[in-house]
Amino acid sequence: MRWQLTTLEVPPQPLRFKVPLVEDFDEWCALFNQHNQDPETPSIHDWIERHSAYYVALPYAREQYEAGHMDAVLFALSRCYRYDLEVPDWAREGLLRITDSIELSQARGWDEVLGRPIPKGTHIASVRKRHRLRPAVFNEVLAELEKGSPIDEALFERVGQKLGAGKSLVAELYYEEKKRATEDWPGFF
């Protein structure tokens, strides 16, 4: 996506959920214990993903939509449907604007309204490889760091051999993911 990160000077208005969020640490612990006893209960991973969608992804998507990036509407809708969140009014309005522009022939096609998802000339195989490797690289590097390994070329080479990638690509993907994770979860990494 071609979004640019900007900071919000005013916090976004709270969004509405179809199912209430876990609001505090005690509820979080109760959810953790309940999931351990009954796997049908949402896991802590589900809780973190849902909160991340609510507190990080949707406000960011709204900011991008208001800046004119219509693809932010699809991003927001995917988060709402994936995590059972109520679709915000701005996303509904955006979807109608998108479909109206196509139905009323104001745009020649989806790419004109939403932008090209992958720039022309990009090798799709390399995009797919990077997308597939990024979380694996990040997790492997974190596992190595927990064992006490220093962050150096040898670390990236070991991880690369394990995952079938070069050390330069591993280093690049690790730092990209670390930057993204640091922006999403300040102070966590």
TrEMBL record:
Protein name per the record: Uncharacterized protein
